[in-house]
Design goal:
Oligomer: single chain
CATH class of the largest domain: Mainly Alpha
CATH architecture of the largest domain: Up-down Bundle
Mean pLDDT: 83
Distance between the termini: 49 Å
Low-confidence stretches: 5-9, 538-543
Largest sheet: 4 strands, antiparallel
Number of strands: 4
Structural class: mainly alpha
Strand order of the largest sheet: 2-3-1-4
Order of helices and strands: HHHHHHHHHHHHHHHEHEEHHE
Shape: globular
Strand content: 5-15%
Amino acid sequence: MPPRPERLIGTTLEPLSEPLFRRLWWATLMSNFGTLIQGVGAAWLMTQLVSASDMVAFVQAATALPIMLLSVPAGAVADISDRRLVMLAALAVMAAVSVLITALAFLHLITPWLLLGLTFMLGCGSALYGPAWQASVGEQVPIRMLPSAVALNALGFNVARTLGPAIGGAIVAAAGAPAAFLANACSYAALIMVLTFWRRNLLPTALPPESIGSAIATGVRYARLSAPIRTVLERAAIFGFGAGGLWATMPLIARDLLGGGPLTYGTLLGGFGAGAVLAAFASTALRRRYGHNRVATTATVTFALAAAVAGVSTWMAITLLSSALAGASWVLSFSTFNVVVQMSSPRWVVGRTLALYQTAAFGGAAFGAWAWGLGAEHVGLSASLLTSAAVLLVSAALLGKRRTLVLHAADELGPLPSTSGGPSLNVPASAGPIVVTVEYRVTAHNISAFMRAAHELGRTRRRDGARQWSLMQDLDDPSRFIERYQALTWLDHLRQWQRATLADQSVRERVLALHEGHHPPVVRHLWARDLSDLEAPPQTITD
């Protein structure tokens, strides 16, 4: 029986009252288990194929490297294509590769480099799937449930991460690595079935999709000019860098500080996962009560304390407690960052901003793991962990106040009901560059306020695709201001206007409120023409 909605309202479990999200959540949980079981099988099989320890380590690298390399292009694909079809294509690739690995393993035909290559292909499928899946969460639940939905997805992943390796180890011990590969191949079935029968409510658009290169550039520009997104990227990268130390050195903690072996290491990982699961349950209530910025800042401080304690403790109980605290802080930080990205991005660009966030977080953690691991080798394990804790504390003190996490209201990032991108003249889509000028009249005592508002408007225009934005004042008539910007083509200009949100409208209204005169500002659209325009094709795109 599905959960009764009236019992879930206001809780982390509330999104489970939505049938689509509930089906996808359970199917995704099964797939996550399969992925982690696959990882155990691949690592163990590599130990049987070769004796070199670096080849065993390459198995994890082959899984993570595609995510680092392909997340941003995958985010662009998620935004310019049908996300459901993108996810199905990625799952089809992963399922086919899993079946191939299974067959080759059962036939004893797999080689070390073939195993790495096929594992890399699975990672490519995961890289393609991830941004589309995360971006689609906002379509599966009402916007008010989005923070809880993100927390639930984090919960599902951490449940799988806590139990999956143990299940994988049991499968490998009982039936061998090929059985683990078979389990992963079967784990995709439910997810593929749910996505096959999902019918998305697609917003109609008269404009053709962007190219991959253009979409990537647009996403990077949006993130750079959006203060909330830029703040998340900075904080996620720095938190990942500082927190990567504990991840990288946990085996050394188990061996050198606690004097244990693989069982001790596994216990610490279990403690980390248990803390992450408990935090995922509490994250929605904590963010609702204390706010996103306070939760993320506090989680950074607690992770720093956990890393410092783990760096000096020689008692298993204390280190295990610090590992659980670190797991809770990890989930609270990254799930909060994820929520802020999703709720600060319009739907047209959310796949790209999530991909950039994932790149920043994974990149920071990967670089931190390398840096703090190198530090442990040269200055000692305890000193390295204490330094990483100090970095986190300093970042919390500085960024918690100077780079605060800010969310828009739930409806502010919705598209404007209607916009006018320019004149009704039929203009070829490739015509350009298109120069737009807007002429304002501003009284002397309003000039300072107008310039501040106009420059904020210019930032939103550049964020949405405008180029070479400027604001000019007439030297002969100081009350006359001209805003000027351009688009490479008429199609780019129309895309810019299609991206306008309700939040942008409030900025425009502040500028218009400072315009004086009986008539609205004069808007002109100028097309830089030459003789080649006479041969332009007749097909046009109008606003």
